[in-house]
Amino acid sequence: MPSRFEFERAIRRSGLPPLARLLALTVATWADTETGRIAIRHQPAQSVLLEATGLSKSAFLSHRKTLLEEGWLQCKSPERIKAQKEHAQNVYSIHIPDGKAGSPGDLAKTDKPGKSDKARSPGDLAKPDKSDTAGSPGDRAQEGEVGYAPVRLGRQATTRVFPSSSTSSSPTGDGEQAGNEERIPDAFAYCQPLIKAMTDAGLVVSWQMTADDWQCVARIQQRAGVDQMVKFALGAKSRSPIRFAKFYLRAGWLGLPPKSTKPAPQPKHLRVLPDWCKDPDCDEITRMRQVEDANGLRSLRPCPECHPNRKDSAA
Predict the structure, then answer these.
(1) Basic and acidic residues compositional bias: what residue ranges (predicted)?
(2) Are strands 91-94 and 288-292 parallel, antiparallel or unpaired?
(3) pLDDT value at residue 295
(4) Could you identify which of 59, 82, 204, 264 might form a hypothetical disulfide with 55, taking C-beta atoms 3.0 to 4.6 angstroms apart as the criterion?
């Protein structure tokens, strides 16, 4: 297994697509500088990688597939039961494919010392250059000052979503699953009306989901509305009892259309009848007229003046 710096230099010379390089270098930030191994406690979750790279879920999966197929990354996925019950996640390791490591001469060509290094004496080379240092601890913003941000190291919780400062664009992949839309703050709290409506409708299911799934449900609720989601869930069928709300997310919530802005039609028993036309052939209660045809046969027809279903009446 290469060291972290060997891996980074190989990625620099790899010719991979820019976003694939970004993902590879981001994963390498959790690797040990000497051994290149990523400890289990430092394994990044998918939500952490999405936040760190700014990629959509579809773009992330596409470029991760490229890195896996070409041998730059290896990913060991947990069993489905462990992922659901124990929140186990993927285990990544970095590698350099055969023939991609380069020679020591390549390093000398690409990493030539600058003129300032040639002019310095051997004794000066042992001293750190101020321009190469990241600054002293005193240069960093302290807690309470503008620009202070706590440093997060290691594994982040898979169910925690950190707010993003960048503006996301519309998804280009699997609809809501693309994850590149603007994230809804505290999606779990936003979905509480849906959870209550589902429970009141007799649909008692488990709402254990990942942060990305909560974002999908929240955006669907924002777009389609609670009533339409509950109506769909009541009509959903499965061979086995439905125990998880994620079933409805995969079974059709993602494809629900936006809620209609047109007001719902008024029930017939609540419609207000127009004023009676007082025609002698028109019944005041039924608003039906007796009409005689050419053969002398009489029949009942809606009154064209005061029946609620006349053509010129409002819908």
Answers:
(1) 108-132
(2) unpaired
(3) 86
(4) 59
- 3 state DSSP class of 246: helix
Q: What is the mean pLDDT of the chain?
A: 76
Closest C-alpha among 221, 219, 252 to residue 234: 252
Whole-Å CA distances, 179 to 43, 63, 172, 298: 21, 15, 9, 67
Total residues found in the chain within this entry: 315
Is the distance from CB of 229 to CB of 256 less than 8 angstroms? yes
Q: At what angle do helices 226-235 and 192-200 cross, to 10 degrees?
A: 40
Return the CATH fold of 4-113.
Answer: Arc Repressor Mutant, subunit A (1.10.10)
Q: What would the pLDDT profile of 113-141 be if each residue is shown by its tens digit?
A: 444 444 455 555 445 554 444 444 444 44
Q: What is the pTM of this model?
A: 0.35
pLDDT of res. 251: 85
Give the single-character DSSP code of 278. -
With beta carbons less than 8 A apart as the criterion, state whether 88 and 82 touch: yes
Domain ranges in the chain are 4-113, 175-255, 265-315
Q: Nearest to residue 281, comparing CAs of 304, 258, 310, 313? A: 304
Q: How far from each other are the two terminal CA atoms of the chain, in whole angstroms?
A: 73
Sequential DSSP letters for 47-95? HHHHHHH---HHHHHHHHHHHHHHTSEEEEPPPHHHHHHS----EEEE-
The three-class DSSP label of residue 211 is helix
Q: Which residues of the chain have pLDDT under 70?
A: 102-181, 263-272, 310-315
Nearest CA to 96 out of 172, 162, 5, 22 is that of 5
Measured between alpha carbons, how far is 277 from 287 in angstroms, rounded to an integer?
9
